[in-house]
Amino acid sequence: MSHLSEEQLVLHYYADGESYAAVETHLSECEICRLQFETLRSELDAIESPVPERGPEYGAEVWRRLEARLPERRVRARFSWLPVWAPAAAVAALVVMAFLAGNWYERNKAPKEIARGGGRVAERILVIAVGDHLDRSQMVLAEIANANPGGGLVDISEERQLAHDLLGENRLYRQTATRTGDAGVASVLDDLERVLVEIANSPDRVSSAEFQVIRNRIESQGLLFKVRVMGSRLRANPPPPAAPSKVL
Amino acid sequence: MIAQALEGDRDAFRVLVERHSRAVFRLAFRITGNESDAEDVVQESFLRAWRQLHRYEARAGFGTWMYRIASNYALDLVRARRRRSSEEIVEGTLAFASDGPLPDRLAFSGEVRRRLETVMATLTPQERLAFTLRHMEGQSIEEIGAVLGTAANATKNSIFRAVQKLRKGLGPAVGATQ
């Protein structure tokens, strides 16, 4: 009589085998296999897993903590013929235009007015907008940097779409930063733009190797760190609010 | 419910969160071995689920999908923690049942628990997750396969390899607990 393998015994323990009755019959007839099975059973039975209790109200507690962190879901309904990045790009364009208009106004009216208010307000709005842009970019980079690709194809459709949305804004902010001489911000936005372009132009599903290339790009440039630091810096040191303007 | 959540309906998502939180916490604790990390996993997993709802495929249950998200994140956490401190031993993930007198049992379970964690650390993430889901959570082969993305035979193999490694690593100490 041939004996049962260890694999058959393990499957039988969990009742996952294909011939439960046949194995039971064998165990009742074969003392060697029965002893082996009993040893296995006592070993596996001994492994238990105590988990701290969470009461019935736990779900509501989780929701309370979670609710504030949930971003709005983007639902495309009206104006679905517009590209999804259009609203964000339009806002970015308005911010940049306001900033440039403020600067122009300040330069041309300065001899007559102490009207630094217009320029300061625009600058402040721009800094807040760029900070927000960096926060959202950071989320995309973090999703990729922390993902567990496993084997096979990796679905990056959401990150790709977000990168595509962010790209238009990024270009505007980078050009503005370059024009106004903020080399630090321009440099981070430039590095960010290269990676966003790469993600945005990838297919929705990439191989593990392609995924790793994108991840390496992020890691090798220390981009996530740079974006995080720059975002914190902008949040921590926004331009001071405008003083009330005085007409001379 | 999921379709409503996909439309941005927070109330619908709230129902899903309230329904699945305890199960996600249980799994997260079993993988990470501590409450604080498990709480992080719960929060982060639901946040990811909300962001990725459009990827959800209705043929798998929402619970199974959440298990997949939570287990991936929890395993990432464990790996990151191991990298930070290769000698750190996580206690509490698994323990041994014992009917011995309490002081002996405590002393013994501490020792065995450390050994068990050491052996668990030698399992691949797939083996560890498959074993946890089968042995601790009582999930079926099909359900585990849906979480791991593997066919039935591969899933059974992962469980078997995990049991083999655990038995080999723990040796006769396990039997002595009974």
**Mean pLDDT reading of chain B:** 79
| Count of beta strands of chain B | 1
Global Rg of chain B: 18 Å
Number of domains of chain A: 2
The residue fraction in helices of chain A comes out at: 55-70%
Shape of chain A: elongated
Spatial separation of the terminal alpha carbons of chain A = 109 Å
**Termini of chain B, distance in Å?**
46 Å
Strand content of chain B: under 5%
Order of helices and strands of chain A: HHHEHHEHEHHEHHE
CATH architecture of the largest domain in chain B: Orthogonal Bundle
- What is the H/E order of chain B? HHHHEHHHHH
Please indicate the percent range of residues of chain A in DSSP E strands (runs of 2 or more). under 5%
Helix content of chain B: over 70%
Broad shape of chain B: globular
Explain what this protein looks like in three dimensions.
The complex is a heterodimer of chains A (248) and B (178). Chain A has helices spanning 6-13, 20-29, 31-45, 58-67, 86-109, 116-146, 157-179, 183-200, 208-220, 223-236, and strands at 47-48, 113-114, 153-155, 205-207, 246-247. Chain A contains ten helices and five strands; from the N terminus they run αααβααβαβααβααβ. Chain A has two domains: 6-45, no CATH class; 86-247, no CATH class. In chain A, strands 2-5 form a two-stranded antiparallel sheet. Mean pLDDT of chain A is 78; it is low at 76-80, 111-115 and 242-248. Chain A is mainly alpha-helical. Chain B is mostly helical and 178 residues long. Chain B folds into two domains: 1-88, Orthogonal Bundle (Rna Polymerase Sigma Factor, Chain: A); 93-178, Winged helix-like DNA-binding domain superfamily/Winged helix DNA-binding domain (Arc Repressor Mutant, subunit A). Chain B is built from nine helices and one strand. In chain B, helix 7 crosses helix 8 (152-170). The longest helix of chain B is centred in the first third of the chain and has 23 residues, at 10-32. The model of chain B is unreliable at 87-92 and 95-108 (pLDDT under 50). Classes of the chains: A mainly alpha (248), B mainly alpha (178). Chains A and B meet through helix 1, helix 3, strand 1 and helix 4 of A and helix 2, helix 3, helix 4, strand 1 and helix 6 of B. Strand 1 of chain A pairs antiparallel with strand 1 (95-96) of chain B, so a sheet runs across the interface.
